[in-house]
């Protein structure tokens, strides 16, 4: 009796677990019968919490860089000689005496000279309290280069400062420079992947569909491109750019360089898909119906490989971002006075600087956050591409 009493709850728990599994399978089967493929893919994507979280992070970051002039409190070019290498100022609600403030505030700055290292040391001064105001008037700007405005998201009254991420070694606000630099670093991946999709999907599909001499020549060319050392090839292409070109022109040249090196892998994978698709019944039926080669490629081949192409593209964007960051860090990409996350990391090339001013590494944290978010989304899309899996 005692043994039966012990086994009963275990058996009941197993039965409940099995019943829950059958119920889940029944719900999924019911959804498959009632919902379209697109809705099933969307529902499966929402089940991946990391993918949803990555989407929220990327939406927030892209919104912030799109409205950068409104978000940032200071011009990212303006130096503040009185606040060179100022550590981050943390927003507070409770002051040094334990009093609670309804409005967030920052402390003022107390500056002393380090006679040993001959540098100024900036510390928070609890005797100076500057409330943080929202939607304040500041330096005029043009949002999207078209809409004039002078309202900024936040700010403090002078002579107070709001350097939430500190300043660099020229006294420029790090938060403002990171947000503006994100426009280059987060956009170069999108532009580069768009070009990669065009080259990789079209050439890969044509290679797999037509075969023969065209396929052989293209695949040998892909192998030659993939055999080159990547960093050396980037350096050669970037060094060939004229030094006097504008920032926008340099940005697009870098995007083209990255896409010329990134399409080969996608072309190989799309070719493998098309090699399998062209032997299937729907391709044979299209040929028997008199469809042209381009119609078969555009209507039958590419749509079937689209989910795979989207997954590869999503996972390729982080690689593009990291490549631009590496080029700019090495001085071969975006060059001053223009800013990107890689260019900002040039200030943190030595261990001595990192030890003294660790906040100069913060652009690297934004790179990591962006790359992880894109990878999470790529994993979610990869799972959603097979919505009928339980």
How is this structure best described in words?
- This protein has 390 residues and is α+β, with helices and mostly antiparallel strands.
- The protein folds into two domains: 89-162, no CATH class; 176-384, MetI-like (MetI-like fold).
- It has 13 helices and five strands.
- It has helices at residues 2-34, 37-46, 49-66, 68-71, 174-210, 212-227, 230-239, 247-277, 281-288, 293-329, 341-344, 351-356, 362-384; strands spanning 92-94, 100-114, 119-131, 133-143, 147-155.
- Strands 1-2-3 form a three-stranded antiparallel sheet, with no helix packed on it. A two-stranded antiparallel ribbon has the order 4-5.
- Strand 2 and strand 3 form a beta hairpin.
- Helix 3 (49-66) packs across helix 13 (362-384), helix 5 (174-210) runs parallel beside helix 13 and helix 9 packs across helix 10.
- The chain is elongated, with a radius of gyration of 28 Å.
- 30% of the residues are buried.
- The model is unreliable at 1-11 and 17-30 (pLDDT under 50).
Short description:
The protein has 13 helices and five strands. The chain has helices spanning 2-34, 37-46, 49-66, 68-71, 174-210, 212-227, 230-239, 247-277, 281-288, 293-329, 341-344, 351-356, 362-384; strands at 92-94, 100-114, 119-131, 133-143, 147-155.
SSE arrangement:
Elements: H1 2-34, H2 37-46, H3 49-66, H4 68-71, E1 92-94, E2 100-114, E3 119-131, E4 133-143, E5 147-155, H5 174-210, H6 212-227, H7 230-239, H8 247-277, H9 281-288, H10 293-329, H11 341-344, H12 351-356, H13 362-384
Helix pairs in contact: 2-13, 3-5, 3-13, 5-6, 5-8, 5-10, 5-13, 6-8, 7-8, 8-10, 9-10, 10-13
